[in-house]
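Sequence design from tokenized structure. All designs in this work follow the same two-part layout: the structure record, then the generated sequence. An example of the structure record is given first.
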């Protein structure tokens, strides 16, 4: 052995470039620096030693021709995201090595990065398949489900909750109905994975379901009677968890629309309005795991003469907001927004509008939290100032600003012609976050005097400006009739979905609107009841 040089100088025309650090025990070499070019005299006996052993660490563990040393190996890596393991059912994978016909399994309990326990020889071909996992979600290997060891990158597994849809209505025999649906939207056509009948427990004039996800379970809320609000938890696969529990039971009251929001500190807040000798808007906090009441029902607003209706609620990360309609005995209309936590609420904004002698009806508030912004959408019925309805307008207010923005005005949609006394109009909104650049707002247009909704529509809202996009109407072409009644919207990783009730055709639909161009990608008949009929359906979607 003649010499090793830590330089780029050539000795007898030969170099060896070492990247990284290795140990030559026979050289008693300890430690190393960064990559260096090491020149070796071509006549050196060391050269023969280095080049005669193909399994030496310089070139990787490649194995030798005689097979006496193991070949180089490489791990098969997995990246898992979106998985909800709340029923103690791990996500199971099988790795099949097509080169040597061996298999191995891997059970994943949570999102993260993993590797199969046994590495494969570099160059071996393999494939990965999904086994069992917690139901109520859809998982798929989005990239690198097969490949070659040492060449192919990590396999990416993405999971997403299936849709959960609650629908309540009275059938044509005035019997209240409540159903809960699960829908796998991972491929087209979509498939209904659950279709459950929920015991209501009484005979309310309107079931008015609400459905909220808390990261572990769904909370389904409904009116079991005009005086009573019930709740039931369901796991991700829509299997009931525990028993039905009572959230509120009033005396001689008629409860209006019920809404709920989840607070990650461990609770839900439920808001509603009620008519009685003393009219009121109230809220009740409940434990998000057990449904146990936290404190008692708290009154936000009350009156012996004013009426309250159609409350909605959100949690913005630090406080609850609720907005509801107020109508005075003198026909003055307004929207009231309160904030609240544990003890009582604070009125933070009143919205009202007059035209001539008319106090315009502001109604059907819908709240949405998007990042640090809270959005309020609502309907405003327009008049000529002398009591004659001439149009309806969809309005918005960002962060409860005193000024509001007009999104869309309708004057004569589908024969609802207020100018000719055909009916008052209301645009009943529901909103979701479609992407970092857009919200998607759906709305039912209601002809009050005609007693039907005449269309359901959607449009995008650009962020952060709030500029509305083009409107897509779904009443004709996608549905059996143009008489919708009740819709709501939600968005997932790549798509938005809208659940719609068609009262005249006795159908419940699922729409797949495209927020990028306002089009409709798919329409699904979720459920039909032509025998008993669907009267006044109300749908919510998670």
């Amino acid at each position: 052995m003649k010499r090793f040089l830590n330089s780029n100088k050539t000795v007898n025309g030969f170099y060896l470039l070492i990247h990284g650090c290795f140990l030559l025990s026979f050289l008693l070499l300890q430690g190393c620096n960064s990559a260096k070019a090491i020149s070796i005299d071509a006549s050196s006996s060391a050269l023969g030693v280095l080049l005669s052993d193909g399994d030496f660490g310089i070139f990787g563990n490649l194995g030798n021709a005689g097979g006496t040393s193991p070949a180089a190996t490489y791990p098969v890596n997995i990246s898992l995201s979106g998985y909800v393991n709340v029923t103690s059912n791990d996500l199971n994978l099988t790795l099949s090595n097509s080169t040597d016909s061996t298999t191995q399994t891997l059970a994943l309990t949570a999102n993260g990065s993993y590797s199969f326990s046994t590495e494969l020889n570099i160059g071996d071909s393999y494939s990965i398949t999904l086994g069992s996992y917690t139901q109520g979600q859809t998982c798929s290997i989005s990239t690198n489900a097969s490949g070659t060891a040492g060449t192919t990158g990590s396999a990416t597994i993405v999971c997403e909750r299936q849709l959960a849809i609650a629908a309540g209505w009275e059938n044509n025999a005035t019997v209240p109905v409540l159903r809960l649906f699960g829908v796998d939207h991972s491929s087209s056509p979509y498939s209904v994975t659950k279709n459950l009948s929920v015991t209501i427990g009484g005979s309310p004039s309107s079931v008015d379901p609400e459905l909220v996800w808390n990261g572990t379970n769904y909370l389904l809320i409904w009116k079991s009677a005009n005086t009573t609000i019930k709740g039931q938890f369901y796991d991700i696969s829509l299997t009931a968890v525990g028993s039905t529990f009572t959230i509120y039971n009033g005396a001689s009251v008629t409860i209006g629309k019920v809404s709920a929001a989840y607070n990650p500190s461990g609770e839900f807040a439920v808001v509603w309005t009620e008519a009685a000798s003393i009219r009121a808007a109230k809220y009740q906090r409940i434990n998000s795991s057990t449904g146990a009441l936290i404190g008692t029902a708290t009154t936000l607003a009350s009156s012996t003469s004013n009426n309250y209706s159609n409350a909605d609620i959100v949690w913005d990360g630090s406080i609850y907001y609720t907005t509801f309609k107020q109508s005075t005995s003198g026909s003055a209309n307004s929207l009231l927004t309160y904030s609240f936590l544990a003890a009582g609420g604070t009125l933070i904004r009143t919205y009202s509008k007059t035209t001539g002698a008319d106090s315009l009806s502001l109604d059907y508030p819908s709240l949405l939290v998007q990042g640090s912004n809270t959005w309020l959408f609502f309907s405003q019925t327009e008049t000529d100032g002398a009591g004659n309805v001439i149009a309806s307008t969809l309005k918005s207010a960002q962060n409860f600003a005193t000024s509001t923005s007009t999104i869309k005005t309708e004057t004569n949609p589908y024969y609802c012609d207020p100018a000719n006394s055909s009916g008052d109009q209301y645009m009943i909104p529901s909103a979701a976050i479609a992407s970092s650049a857009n919200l998607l707002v759906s709305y039912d247009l209601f002809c009050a005097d005609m007693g039907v909704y005449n269309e359901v529509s959607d449009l995008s809202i650009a962020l952060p400006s709030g500029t509305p996009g083009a409107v897509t109407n779904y009443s004709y072409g996608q549905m059996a009739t143009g008489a919708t009644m009740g819709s709501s919207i939600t968005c997932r990783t790549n798509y938005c979905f809208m659940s719609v009730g068609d009262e005249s055709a006795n159908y419940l639909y699922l729409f797949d609107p495209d927020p990028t161009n306002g089009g409709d990608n798919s329409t699904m008949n979720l459920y039909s009841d032509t025998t008993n009929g669907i009267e006044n359906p109300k749908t919510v979607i998670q």
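The helical segments are 45-52. We note this feature because it recurs in several other targets discussed in the main text.
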